[in-house]
Amino acid sequence: LSVKFITNRAIANEIVRHRIASYAQVSTRYCNYSKDKFGNEIQVIEPNEDNLPIGSDSYNIWYQLCKNAEDAYMAMLSNGIKPEIARDALPLSLATEIVVTTNVRSWRNIFDLRTSKFAHPQIRSLMKSLLNEFKSKIPVLFDDIDVD
Question: Does the annotation count 87 as an active-site position?
Answer without folding.
Answer: no
